């Protein structure tokens, strides 16, 4: 059997169907960096079929969003050693927006001794899931993706504008759940559906959110690593669909002044591996102590992982009252003003929705951080506060309001550091410190307008 034939046999069915009767022109060998940006190499299909792995320097995890590099806090001196990247063939999916027949494959990342690289985001999530599994639990997540379609913006000094719709008018705000608002940019949505079908990705639903040109995409529930892989792919694909129609898709937490921010809400449940039952519900369908402990863990530890859920200075612009974004860690049933919401469901579907993550976070790290908080609540039997009654925006703010304060909390929480991995936490903090310091060198229009001649 030829190397190419052997490769095709190892691909998921969706990739085999996509390639039926065709040869693989190119393979994109990719991983997600700390920001969730795809890094890797592209190579001809024939070459990919003949190799078992390839190498990338570990410096890809020390690069800031601006392209600078943080010092490695784990090593003495700068040596930039290679990591070993091995394809995870279960993730091999088409890249249907390309001009030729291209596959994209997410790779596992180990060091040269065969150990998982501890600061690779996908490995961080795998680490947290393994802790659940060691206790006999299977964590289940269902993420939501909010994003904006915006007009092309090639000048960073210009404010971001909504896209031009099919009516010839720019999208308007406050049109939540409007079908006609979604139809305004129907060709982009059509391509998102078509690309998703070609890639074998399931969409649970698409709706218009509250912002001008803001869309929400819901995913099915399932395994955290698989769902994070899908979100990583969805972000790439949605951007490509938008570019086909002369607009941008942005996952910034707060891209447009005066409009709602974009969240990555995560729904959580936990299943007993032996019985297959949701541990948040008992045999009578009532809430269990574990359900409360999961909430308690999130209330106790979420402030320490805000730096992962809100990873940029822009992220904290989203945490404002009355914009469908949380400002505290209160929990309640069927109440969207709280940071932790318990949706209406039957006993089997009982779950906790974490409304704190922004859509700008790395999906691997956002899910890992959220699961880590719930895990600590379960193992430490952390009691939750009383459920909030009424409008939670009237309560006190109890989450960090800036990246610097959030990083301090991440450094101080030894329990969270142990769950996520101390090496990862040190690397992440080093990169974010450098990003924050770079931001502080920028003088904003607000400062020039109000301070230049007045102070």
TrEMBL record:
Its cofactor is Mg(2+). PROSITE patterns: GLNA_ATP, GS_CATALYTIC. Keywords: Ligase, Magnesium. Transmembrane segments: none annotated. The keyword Nucleotide-binding does not apply. Pfam families: Gln-synt_C (PF00120). It comes from the Bacteria. SUPFAM superfamilies: Glutamine synthetase, N-terminal domain, Glutamine synthetase/guanido kinase. Residues 121-455 form the GS catalytic domain. Belongs to the glutamine synthetase family. This is Glutamine synthetase family protein. It comes from [Roseibacterium] beibuensis.
């Amino acid at each position: 059997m030829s190397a190419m034939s052997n490769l095709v046999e190892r691909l998921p069915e969706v990739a085999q169907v996509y390639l039926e009767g065709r040869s693989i022109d190119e393979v994109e060998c990719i991983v997600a960096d700390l920001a969730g940006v795809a890094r890797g190499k592209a190579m001809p299909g024939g070459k990919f079929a003949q190799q078992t792995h390839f190498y990338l320097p570990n410096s890809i995890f020390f690069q800031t969003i601006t392209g600078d590099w943080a010092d490695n806090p784990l090593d003495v001196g700068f040596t930039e050693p290679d990591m070993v990247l091995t394809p995870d063939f279960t993730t091999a999916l088409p890249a249907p927006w390309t001009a030729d027949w291209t596959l994209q494959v997410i790779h596992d990342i180990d060091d040269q001794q065969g150990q998982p690289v501890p600061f690779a985001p996908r490995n961080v999530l795998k680490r947290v899931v393994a802790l659940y599994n060691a206790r006999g639990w299977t964590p289940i997540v269902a993420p939501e993706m909010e994003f904006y379609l915006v007009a092309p913006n090639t000048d960073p000094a210009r404010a971001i504008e909504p896209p031009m719709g099919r009516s010839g008018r720019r999208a308007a705000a406050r049109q939540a759940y409007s079908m006609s608002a979604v139809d305004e940019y129907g060709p982009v949505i059509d391509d998102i559906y078509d690309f998703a079908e070609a890639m074998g990705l399931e969409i649970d639903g698409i709706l218009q959110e509250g912002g001008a040109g803001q869309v929400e995409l819901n995913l099915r529930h399932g395994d955290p690593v698989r769902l994070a892989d899908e979100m990583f792919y969805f972000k790439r694909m949605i951007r490509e669909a938008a570019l086909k129609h002369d607009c941008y898709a942005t996952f910034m937490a707060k891209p447009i002044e005066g409009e709602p921010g974009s969240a990555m809400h995560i729904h959580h449940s936990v299943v007993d591996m032996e019985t297959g039952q949701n541990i948040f519900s008992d045999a009578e369908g009532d809430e269990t102590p574990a359900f409360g402990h999961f909430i308690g863990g999130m209330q106790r530890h979420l402030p320490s992982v805000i730096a992962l859920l809100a990873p940029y200075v822009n992220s904290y612009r989203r945490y404002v009252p009355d914009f469908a974004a949380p400002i505290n860690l209160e929990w309640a049933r069927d109440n969207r003003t709280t940071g932790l919401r318990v949706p209406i469901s039957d006993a089997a579907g009982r779950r906790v929705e974490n409304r704190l993550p922004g859509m700008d976070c790395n999906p691997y790290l956002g899910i890992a951080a959220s699961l880590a908080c719930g895990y600590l609540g379960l193992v430490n039997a952390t009691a939750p506060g009383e459920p909030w009654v009424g409008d939670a925006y009237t309560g006190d703010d109890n989450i960090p309001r800036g990246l610097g304060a959030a990083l301090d909390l991440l450094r101080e929480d030894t329990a969270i550091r142990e769950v996520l991995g101390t090496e990862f936490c040190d690397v992440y903090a080093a990169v974010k410190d450098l990003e924050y310091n770079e931001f502080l060198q920028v003088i904003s229009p607000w400062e020039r307008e109000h301070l230049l001649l007045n102070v």
